[in-house]
């Protein structure tokens, strides 16, 4: 009955240890608050008969989390192309804030309906330090109906990892330089050495698609990914709509 807590807690514990160790690494960021911060992306595959109940419980989690002192923001999304998928994106100041969050009544209530409302156990992706310095939009800003928000959950061929990271070190700055881009970040996944999560937010779908098909570096990045991923790029992409409070 408590799948969501057990999965999240185990992964977040790994993240806390990982981030703590990085604080002493000369290659890690010098921003101590970023070193402590824990952020996680959750993927939930709902049963058609359980969607209404699960969404309602998730929105209660969102409402409650916004009032937690240790929360740095929480967002909920539905998948544009799969009505049975829901995503949650949580950011916390540190592991103590996570422990407090997991003990709240709304989080426990959500855990109690996991088995009856989901088709499979929830998947948690604990995000490591961003490939380039993280740039995020203010938590008060919501994704507009005409904007594009995409999450990519990439599985990289082990032999191609360094190549993909090097490519993204160029591409991230290239994307952020575009007036039509709101934010773009790429993160390794804690405890999964071949997985990357890319989160991009654009002012319009048209601007994003035009950029990806005409910008030379963007097209080069697309080719690198085509050669480096375990499956076709499209299978990893999730176009999302933000659920409003």
UniProtKB/TrEMBL annotation:
Keywords from the named record: Signal
Residues of the signal peptide: 1-21
UniProt domain ABM: residue ranges: 38-126, 148-236
Top-level taxon in the UniProt lineage: Bacteria
InterPro entries per the UniProt record, alphabetical: ABM_dom, AI-2_Isomerase_LsrG, Dimeric_a/b-barrel
Any one Gene Ontology molecular-function term assigned to this protein's record: catalytic activity
Name of this chain's protein: ABM domain-containing protein
Organism in which the protein naturally occurs: Granulosicoccus antarcticus IMCC3135
């Amino acid at each position: 009955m408590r799948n969501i807590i057990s999965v999240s807690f185990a992964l977040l514990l790994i993240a806390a240890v990982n981030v703590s160790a990085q604080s002493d690494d000369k290659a890690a960021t010098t921003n101590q608050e970023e070193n402590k911060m824990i952020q996680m992306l959750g993927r939930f595959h709902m049963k058609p008969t359980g969607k209404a109940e699960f969404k309602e419980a998730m929105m209660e989690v969102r409402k409650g989390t916004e009032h937690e002192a240790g929360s740095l923001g929480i967002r909920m999304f539905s998948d544009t192309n799969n009505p049975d998928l829901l995503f949650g994106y949580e950011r916390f100041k540190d592991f103590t804030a996570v422990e407090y969050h997991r003990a709240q009544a709304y989080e426990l209530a959500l855990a109690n309906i996991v088995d009856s409302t989901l088709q499979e156990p929830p998947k948690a992706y604990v995000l490591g330090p961003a490939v380039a310095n993280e740039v995020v939009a203010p938590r008060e800003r919501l994704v507009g109906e005409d904007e594009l928000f995409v999450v990519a959950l990439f599985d990289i061929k082990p032999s191609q990892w360094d190549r993909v990271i090097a490519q993204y070190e160029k591409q991230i700055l290239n994307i952020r330089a575009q007036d039509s881009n709101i934010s773009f970040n790429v993160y390794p996944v804690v405890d999964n050495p071949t997985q990357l999560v890319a989160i991009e937010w654009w002012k319009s779908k048209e601007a994003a698609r035009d950029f990806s098909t005409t910008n030379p570096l963007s097209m080069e990045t697309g080719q690198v990914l085509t050669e480096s991923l375990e499956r076709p790029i499209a299978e990893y992409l999730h176009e999302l709509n933000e659920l409003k409070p």
